[in-house]
């Protein structure tokens, strides 16, 4: 950032558009994500009609259109694969040039978002549910206890710190990252309201209806006293088999606990999913060696969740519903 040559084609076009709208250079720099001097140099260069000096580009507009088609055919290819296909198409360019052209056209390499796969019927039900709840206020959502299970692993995938080492130190024990083929993991049940989180339950076996009802008896009921006292509340859970079993429905009727109707395959509508994400991000630097240390880390991190975080997540429900309606029942960014 700072040199005009560093600006991408997309950034330059954005600067020109914002300049025509009468925006100041300071505002333009903030919106484009570059320095104010870069904006000033680009505007002055355009005003004087000067072109960028240096070697002429080795790729034509036709070559760039071919590159766009290759990228859009499969957005999960790496630069090497895209460069190989571009070369086969008759373009003579290096791998680094391929990467630069992709950046110039606005393509960036990012971790893909994960969204649930929804069929047409599920989208219709989600849309109907969202339209039914669109007038609910934040106060009404504060009466809902959200619950869910989540899996925590000792190994957090390929996310982790890099290591600084010299030539010949690849096998140095201080430079090695331990890994296991089947990392230990624990399944956790938790619940939250707009005020706080409830107690955690570590599940030792596969969750069937009987196991789930024990969790409700020994953890959900105490959580209601902790989060709501004697006030009325509505319980939320998804449509997992253990949750939707007839015996589980009978358990809720016997205890007089009302249930919030919930659309299938809709984790993006549940704020506790975001809470699990917050907990896992806070645990990113932790390195538990076994399941017991992992449980202790999860408990300690869960205890650090503040009422403000819970309230902010539950307050997002009207926005989640509006997003679901706008997407016509499709999965949303949440």
From TrEMBL:
Domain of life according to the entry: Eukaryota
Pfam families (alphabetical): DDE_3 (PF13358), HTH_Tnp_Tc3_2 (PF01498)
GO MF, one example: DNA binding
Tc1-like transposase DDE domain boundaries: 144-295
Any one GO BP annotation for this protein: DNA transposition
The Transposase Tc1-like domain, residue ranges: 64-132
Gene3D superfamilies: Ribonuclease H-like superfamily/Ribonuclease H, Winged helix-like DNA-binding domain superfamily/Winged helix DNA-binding domain
PANTHER family: TC1-LIKE TRANSPOSASE DDE DOMAIN-CONTAINING PROTEIN, TRANSPOSABLE ELEMENT-RELATED
Protein name: Transposase
């Amino acid at each position: 950032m700072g040199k005009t040559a560093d600006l991408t084609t997309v950034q330059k076009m954005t600067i020109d558009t914002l300049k025509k709208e009468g925006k100041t250079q300071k505002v333009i720099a903030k919106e484009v994500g570059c320095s104010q001097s870069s904006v000033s140099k680009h505007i002055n260069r355009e005003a004087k009609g000067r072109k960028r000096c240096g070697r002429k580009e080795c790729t034509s507009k036709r070559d760039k259109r071919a590159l766009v088609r290759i990228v859009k055919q499969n957005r999960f290819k790496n630069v090497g694969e895209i460069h190989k296909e571009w070369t086969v198409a008759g373009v003579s360019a290096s791998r680094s040039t391929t990467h630069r052209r992709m950046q110039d056209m606005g393509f960036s390499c990012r971790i893909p978002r994960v969204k649930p796969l929804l069929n047409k019927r599920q989208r219709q039900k989600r849309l109907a549910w969202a339209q039914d709840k669109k007038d609910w206020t934040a106060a009404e959502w504060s009466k809902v206890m959200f619950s869910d299970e989540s899996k925590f692993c000792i190994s957090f995938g390929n996310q982790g710190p890099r290591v600084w080492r010299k030539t010949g130190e690849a096998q140095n024990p201080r430079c090695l990252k331990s890994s296991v083929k089947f990392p230990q993991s624990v399944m956790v049940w938790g619940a939250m309201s707009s005020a706080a989180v409830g107690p955690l339950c570590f599940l030792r076996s596969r969750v069937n209806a009987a196991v789930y009802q024990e969790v409700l008896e020994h953890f959900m009921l105490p959580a209601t006293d902790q989060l709501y006292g004697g006030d009325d509340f509505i319980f939320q859970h998804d449509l997992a088999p253990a949750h939707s079993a007839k015996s589980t429905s009978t358990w809720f009727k016997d205890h007089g606990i009302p249930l919030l109707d919930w659309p299938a395959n809709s984790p993006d509508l549940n704020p506790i999913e975001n809470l699990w994400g917050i907990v896992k991000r806070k645990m990113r630097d932790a390195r538990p060696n076994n399941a017991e240390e992992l449980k202790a880390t999860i408990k300690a991190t869960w205890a650090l969740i503040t009422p403000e975080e819970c309230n902010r997540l539950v307050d997002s429900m009207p926005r989640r519903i509006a997003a679901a309606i706008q997407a016509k029942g499709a999965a949303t960014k949440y």
